[in-house]
Amino acid sequence: MEPAANGNTSYAKKLLKKLIYEVELEHGEVLDQVYEEYALYMSAASKEDAFVKQNIRITKFISFLFPEGLYEHPSCPRSRKLVVPLQCSLNMLEGDTGFIYMRESPSTSDLGSWVGSGVGMVGICLAHVKAKKVMLTDGDLLTLSNMKLNLERNHLNYDDELVKQPGEAQSTLVKCIHLPWETASESELSEYRPDVIVGADVIYDPSCLPHLLRVLVALLRRPAKRENGSIETGDRDTAQQGRSPVVAYIASVIRNADTFNAFLRLVDQMDLSLTDEPMYSLASVL
């Protein structure tokens, strides 16, 4: 039994709902087939709503308020508020998704790759604070296309450099790359040499966790160095050069405790050190 393809599904659903209500109100017996038909219409409506949310594009404005103490920072506007316009689907930015790594600090860094960059919000912010290089990656080509549009809306040229505003110095290079976690090779990941990794809301899908951790481990690992026939580990090589070890910062909303615990188990299995860092929110959706 399926809802009529050519009929008015909304009308049919309302009619069945009214019929069931009136029969139950009179203490009558509703046939099981009527309940089943109504359930099918409800299921179809739910799927249709999800499809609509995924495909309809809207513009949201994300406002970042600069905290006291950073008012003199070169990237802080006079309003002390950075507003980022983003085009996204209706079901996006209930929580942003992104994964970024950078070299050194945002103000002086060559910035590597953002895996799962979504609409590009974090990358846009890092470009705003004058990170020297921002590489945004995602495994979905449609997402990458939409992200490029958002970069342009925020005066970022994703193929060359930050579009210069009047009186501003040119400093940021932005790149967009297609990089699915599942198929990213070790040789491909070894081309990136981050000093800091920043991730935003990337541990919500249990099926993606092993791939995410594999990519994280590859990016956290310094390139091995051969000396006198031996292989020096990345950490030792880092220490010899006086460089700080690679660190990953991952901000996440714990939507499901089981998923988060699965992430923690994988972190432990891969012998990574994990520390809980206190954070405060500077962003609000207008």
From TrEMBL:
Please, which domain of life does this record's source organism belong to?
Eukaryota
> What name goes with this protein?
Uncharacterized protein
- InterPro entries attached to this UniProt entry: Methyltransf_16, SAM-dependent_MTases_sf
SUPFAM superfamilies found in the cross-reference section: S-adenosyl-L-methionine-dependent methyltransferases
